[in-house]
Fold:
Amino acid sequence: MTEHHAHPTEICAICGKSKPARQMLPASVVRPAISDMIHDAVPAWGPDGRICVSCLNRYRTDFVRRELEKERGGMGTLLAGVPGVPAGKIVILGAGVVGANAARIAVGSGARVFALDRSVDALRRIESEFGARVVTVHSSRDTIEQHLLSADLVIGAVLVPGAAAPRLVSRALLARMKPGAALVDVAIDQGGCFETSRPTTHADPTYVVDGVVHYCVANMPGAVPRTSTYALGNATLPFVLALADAGWHQALAADPQLRNGLNLARGKVTHPAVAQALGLEYTPPESLL
Ligand SMILES: [Zn+2]
Structure:
């Protein structure tokens, strides 16, 4: 290979090769987890060090491989399948807003998608949006069991506003699922809809019970903080302004939507689902305003 001496070169401290200076990067652009790996391999390399692009890419690849290896227990199914190998099966429990969003992603993955709900209206909305790409199923103990036993991925999207999520999947049923299958419990903030669900964090999102991987991160929207903060802000700011302008008493008296969100007032439980979940007496919010 010809050297172009007109261009400045630099010796990479990692591979020891002479590299064009424009292919050398300072340690400050390397993410900490990767610079730790480089430092482990080459102790002399520190915060002032530089590294060539091809060395950095090698460490980046190693880093990704290590991260993937951390996710132990999965069955290694490509949901979309490949020619001659069937696609995976995704089962969505609950066909409301969360379930419909899950269906949108699931359809995009190329998997076979099934949505279960007790509400015929909810199933009809899924059918009109997705047609034959999502199979709608009336939810019952029998149909949940039938579809879970052949599922590769189950998304628990059953949310009852204010109330504890119904426990749809028992430990006994879990034990009969395909080993390596995965559960995502979107209802975890309401207690979860699988008996074996317990809240996890983005830092340590999964655990395995009976060979089934559980993903139960509380506050899942926190994975995309910018989008979720804007979305939450857009949805809630009008209510905040109403409360600030009129005071809570008058604002709630004027707006039934805001009133529906009232959980507790003057020592009483003012939300029917919360009262039921906690076994306490329900007091209509109107009577306290
Ligand atoms: Zn190098």
